[in-house]
Amino acid sequence: MNIEILKAQHRLIIRLASALGGLAEALKTPEDVLRARELMTALNTALIEHLAIEDGELYPVLMKADDASVRLLAEHYVDDMGAISGAWAHYFGEWSQARILSDRGRFAVATKGLIGALAHRVEREDDTLYPAMEAADARSAALRDEDSGSV
């Protein structure tokens, strides 16, 4: 699996999240609120695409790893992402343009908390999960090389 695609998606997610977080702190006009919703929609699309690859390609491979610690790591990440996905879905549904306009302060606080959780998750995936996947890929390649050499 090409982890670089997932890492590139992480960079996009962080850029969008950072822009949204900065804007949430400084909302002044209805145009700012419109831009916030546009950023939320772009971030939602990026998250859906990213999770589709993780759920469809990354986690199935890790869940079948020979190493039990890798399988447990993958299970932990799947469970943890469910909580973050649920929080994002609630946030995305709750904060319409009208709601943001009516309660900018709470929107800023909610956005800061959610962006912090996303950033922490991205950092953990980059530091722990993706290296585990790369190691599993390397082990599989080594086993294939051994098998093809012994035939």
Radius of gyration, in angstroms, nearest whole number: 19 Å
Overall strand count: 0
- What is the average per-residue confidence, as pLDDT, rounded to a whole number? 92
Count of individual helical segments: 5
The largest sheet is:
none
Approximate strand percentage? under 5%
- The quaternary organization reads as single chain
Q: Note the overall shape.
A: elongated
- What class, by secondary structure content? mainly alpha
The helix/strand order is HHHHH
Distance between the termini: 26 Å
Low-pLDDT stretches = none
Helix content: over 70%
Task: Walk me through the structure.
- The chain has 151 residues and is an all-alpha fold.
- The chain is 91% helix and 0% strand.
- It has five helices and no strands.
- It has helices at residues 3-25, 30-63, 68-94, 97-102, 104-150.
- The longest helix has 47 residues, at 104-150.
- The protein is elongated, with a radius of gyration of 19 Å.
- The two termini are 26 Å apart.
- The model has no long low-confidence stretch (mean pLDDT 92).
